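TASK: fixed-backbone design
INPUT:
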C-alpha cells in the first residue's frame, strides 16, 4: 500500500505552483530540512541570494534558487520549503517538494543543533519517496518477456536464492522476465530495480547553529551522527559564516567535479578557462554542454591526457574523460 502511495506522490511530483525550477549551472544542490533550520540563511551565505529569512517556520513558500561559484564550477543551490514528516505521502506541499529533490544532483540534509535527531525523519522521508542516498545503483538488468517465467542469472556471489527473487516478482504481478544481477544484491535492491523509479543521489549532513552550544555538545552530535549514518557531518553556523567556506569545498568534492580543457582546431588550447564536468563524463556530455547541436554534428574528437594511450588520440562520443584532459572536437559545418 505504502509503495503505491509513494508512487502516486512521485507521479504527481511534476512541480506544482512555484516549484518548477529550471536547472542551471554545472550541478544542482538542494537544501533539505525541517522548517526554520536555517536553510534560507545558509543559501544567502553560500550564494549571496536574498531568500526571505524570518525566525518562524514556513517562510520559504516557493523554491528559491541561488548560484554559487566555487573553483570554477557554477553550482545551483535550491532552498525548498521545509519538509515535514509525511512529505513523501503528500503532506504539506510534500509532493512538489519531493519532486524538486528527485531532480537534484546532490542533497544537503540540514538540521540544527537542537534537533539533530531530525536526520532520521528526513532520511526516512527521502527513502519513502524512492530517493537512495550515498548508495550505488545496483547492477540489475530486468527484461520483461512474454513467456518462460522468471529466469535469474548472476555474475559473482549472490546471497539471495532464485525462489526469493521469484516471489518478489510474483507479489508484484510480474510473471515473465529475464533478470541479470551483477555482484550481490539485497531484497530491497531487487525491489528497487523492479520498480525502476528510484533516484540515487550523493548527500551530506550539515548541522547548523553550532555557535549556540558548547564544544563538548558539538562533539557529542558529531559522534552520534557519525556512528548512526557513517557520515562526517559538516558543523556550521550559517548566521556567523563559521565553516561555510569548508562547506563549499565539501559540496564541490561530493559532486565529483573534474576539469578538462578545450583546444579549438589548429589553435592554442585555452588553459585559463577549464570546462567543469562531472567525474565519469564522456565526450558526448561535453558536446551537450557546449551546444545542443554538437552531438548530431559530431565527427570525432582528439584527446591529450590520462584517458588516452597516446597524445591526440582520435575518440568517439562514448569515450570517458579524466581530470586535466585536453580536447579538440571536430564537427560537421
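OUTPUT:
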Amino acid at each position: 500500500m505504502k509503495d503505491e502511495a509513494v508512487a502516486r506522490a512521485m507521479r504527481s511530483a511534476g512541480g506544482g505552483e512555484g516549484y518548477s525550477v529550471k536547472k542551471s549551472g554545472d550541478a544542482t544542490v538542494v537544501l533539505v530540512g525541517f522548517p526554520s533550520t536555517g536553510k534560507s540563511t545558509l543559501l544567502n551565505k553560500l550564494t549571496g541570494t536574498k531568500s526571505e529569512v524570518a525566525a518562524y517556520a514556513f517562510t520559504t513558500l516557493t523554491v528559491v534558487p541561488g548560484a554559487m561559484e566555487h573553483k570554477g564550477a557554477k553550482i545551483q543551490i535550491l532552498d525548498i520549503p521545509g519538509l515535514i514528516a509525511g512529505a513523501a505521502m503528500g503532506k504539506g506541499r510534500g509532493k512538489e517538494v519531493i519532486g524538486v529533490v528527485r531532480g537534484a544532483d546532490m542533497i544537503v540534509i540540514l538540521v540544527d543543533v537542537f534537533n539533530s535527531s531530525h536526520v532520521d525523519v528526513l532520511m526516512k522521508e527521502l527513502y519513502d519517496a524512492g530517493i537512495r542516498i550515498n548508495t550505488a545503483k545496483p547492477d540489475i538488468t530486468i527484461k520483461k518477456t512474454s513467456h518462460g517465467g522468471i529466469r535469474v542469472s548472476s555474475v559473482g556471489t549472490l546471497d539471495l536464492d532464485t525462489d526469493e527473487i521469484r516471489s518478489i516478482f510474483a507479489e508484484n504481478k510480474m510473471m515473465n522476465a529475464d533478470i541479470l544481477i551483477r555482484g550481490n544484491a539485497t531484497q530491497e535492491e531487487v525491489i528497487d530495480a523492479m520498480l525502476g523509479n528510484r533516484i540515487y543521489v550523493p548527500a551530506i549532513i550539515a548541522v547548523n547553529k553550532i555557535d549556540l552550544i558548547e564544544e563538548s555538545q558539538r562533539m557529542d552530535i558529531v559522534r552520534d551522527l557519525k556512528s548512526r549514518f557513517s557520515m562526517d557531518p559538516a558543523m556550521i553556523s550559517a548566521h556567523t559564516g563559521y565553516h561555510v567556506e569548508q562547506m563549499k569545498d565539501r559540496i564541490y568534492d561530493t559532486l565529483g567535479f573534474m576539469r578538462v580543457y578545450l583546444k579549438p582546431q589548429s589553435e592554442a588550447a585555452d588553459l585559463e578557462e577549464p570546462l567543469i564536468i562531472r567525474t565519469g563524463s564522456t565526450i558526448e556530455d561535453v558536446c551537450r554542454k557546449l551546444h545542443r547541436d554538437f552531438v548530431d554534428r559530431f565527427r570525432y574528437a582528439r584527446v591529450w591526457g590520462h584517458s588516452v594511450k597516446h597524445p591526440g588520440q582520435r575518440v568517439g562520443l562514448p569515450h570517458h574523460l579524466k581530470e586535466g584532459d585536453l580536447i579538440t572536437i571536430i564537427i560537421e559545418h
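COMMENT: Confidence is low (pLDDT under 50) at residues 8-18, 54-60.
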